[in-house]
Amino acid sequence: RWVSVGSDLKYDARRDLDDVGAKCVQVHPLNKLPYSKLDSKAIGIKNGVIFVTYSSLIASSERGRSRLQQLVQWCGHEFDGLIVFDECHKAKNLIPDAGSQP
Known about the structure:
This is Strawberry notch AAA domain-containing protein. This protein has 102 residues and is α/β, with parallel strands linked by helices.
């Protein structure tokens, strides 16, 4: 999972993966995917990088399902991967106000 500030940085993520020889790894922008299970037959993402912005990570659907919940479900209990927090110093303002849900 690759978490960053802006969706345009997914191109930088792709370049970085290419630079380390991971050209076969697909990058899936989460903001282009529905709020359903990522590994469902409709979406079918089993492997690769899910690219998500910090603001998308805290977003939720009309039913209240968050992108964070979606990613946690996709990773599962046996997750054996890497979560990259790019430009994490810029995420400091994403903490919800007192009394609101994270």
